[in-house]
């Protein structure tokens, strides 16, 4: 059965499942955000050095396909997508295609409402609009790190060998010719439009103009509407950090991507730069504890974020040591993998606990209200005015 179903299709299903979990369990938003950061950064660590055994590389291929959108199973069918130009172009087009599909779904749903004359048409339209806005925001957030890393790799200084200049990310490609020129054009376009544009041209204005800092002063209906589509970038944080901390989170990812892509892999300065970013993030995390904790007696989300930053810092430092000391690298590599496996198991257990807690809370609310669970967006019957993707 696994040989019949393409691997890339299974990986797409995992992405859909992860996005569905992120939407379904609003109480698990914080740890989902931490998980995505961890997997994307850990995949970048694995692909940055050549010290890993085959078993680790097989795992890394799957993580990269799911979280950094490198669907290597399509390489034989679409080889041009896996050239430097094809990879950057497909990554830049990916969020656009996803957002277009989301709004096609909105148009289709609204037409169904109109044709079949559903009751409460305006309420349904607003719920559907909020769902599509939320999916659009999540798409841009999820694809940010891989696009920044690929853009930085494209714009990185070329290597040189015997007078021949080559792209460091793809040494077989010379830094001249038509493909390289188009690659540079795409890279310089992506830098202001996506790398800088998403955090500072989109998310920051959205947080400012929607008055997230004064959200508690809004009417309850407006709060629910705002939470339903923009909540994924501010609800994971405590009240005082909501207007800006998502931008700091994106800056952290941007700086790590720049350090891994712009600095030569063989240079120890690359590890120093990445670890410096992680240490600054760790200091901010320990000083402010910005995430909303789901449990009063135990700071689950903040503890998970702290452990992720510590583990990534530990991993980057020891991988550099293993690369510089190949004779003693194998025990170090398996020590790194063991620590990361323990962290991964802890995060999976945490997500399950938070989803179970959210499910129990929903059941209690439904019992208190004395009605059945909400119908789907396209279902019959009236619902609350503002639906969310979580529902």
From TrEMBL:
Superkingdom to which the source organism belongs: Eukaryota
Keywords associated with the record: Membrane, Signal, Transmembrane, Transmembrane helix
Signal peptide location: 1-27
Keyword tRNA processing: no
TM stretches of this protein: 88-113, 186-209, 269-288, 331-355
Entries under PANTHER family matching the protein: G PROTEIN-COUPLED RECEPTOR-RELATED, OUTER MEMBRANE PROTEIN PMPC-RELATED
Protein name, per record: TRP C-terminal domain-containing protein
Native species: Pocillopora damicornis (Cauliflower coral)
């Amino acid at each position: 059965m696994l040989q019949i179903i393409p691997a890339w299709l299974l990986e797409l299903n995992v992405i859909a499942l992860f996005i569905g979990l992120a939407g379904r369990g609003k109480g698990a938003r914080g740890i989902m955000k931490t998980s995505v950061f961890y997997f994307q950064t850990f995949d970048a660590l694995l692909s940055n050095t050549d010290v890993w055994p085959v078993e680790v590389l097989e795992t890394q291929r799957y993580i990269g396909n799911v979280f950094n959108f490198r669907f290597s199973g399509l390489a034989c069918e679409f080889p041009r997508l896996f050239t430097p130009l094809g990879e950057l172009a497909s990554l830049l087009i990916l969020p656009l295609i996803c957002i277009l599909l989301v709004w096609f779904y909105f148009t289709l749903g609204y037409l169904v409402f109109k044709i079949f004359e559903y009751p409460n048409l305006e309420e349904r339209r607003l719920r559907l609009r909020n769902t599509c806005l939320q999916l659009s925001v999540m798409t841009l957030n999820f694809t940010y790190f891989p696009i920044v890393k690929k853009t930085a790799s494209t714009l990185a200084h070329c290597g040189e060998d015997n007078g021949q200049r080559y792209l460091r990310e793809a040494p077989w490609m010379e830094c001249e010719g038509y493909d390289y020129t188009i690659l540079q054009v795409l890279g310089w376009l992506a830098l202001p439009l996506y790398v800088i544009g998403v955090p500072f041209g989109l998310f920051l204005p959205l947080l400012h103009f929607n008055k997230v800092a004064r959200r508690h002063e809004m009417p309850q209906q407006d709060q629910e509407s705002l939470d339903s589509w923009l909540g994924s970038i501010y609800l994971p944080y405590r009240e005082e950090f909501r207007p800006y901390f998502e931008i700091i989170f994106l800056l952290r990812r941007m700086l790590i991507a720049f350090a891994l892509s712009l600095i030569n892999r063989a240079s120890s300065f690359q590890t120093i730069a990445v670890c410096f970013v992680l240490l600054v993030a760790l200091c901010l995390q320990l000083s402010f504890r910005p995430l909303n904790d789901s449990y009063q007696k135990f700071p689950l989300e903040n503890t998970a974020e702290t452990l992720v930053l510590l583990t990534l810092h530990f991993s980057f430092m020891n991988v550099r040591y293993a690369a510089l000391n190949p004779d003693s690298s194998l025990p170090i590599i398996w020590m790194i993998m063991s620590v990361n496996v323990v962290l991964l198991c802890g995060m999976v257990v945490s997500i399950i606990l938070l989803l179970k807690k959210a499910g129990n809370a929903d059941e209690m609310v439904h019992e208190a209200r004395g009605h059945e669970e909400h119908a789907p967006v396209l279902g019959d019957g009236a619902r609350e005015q503002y639906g969310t993707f979580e529902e």
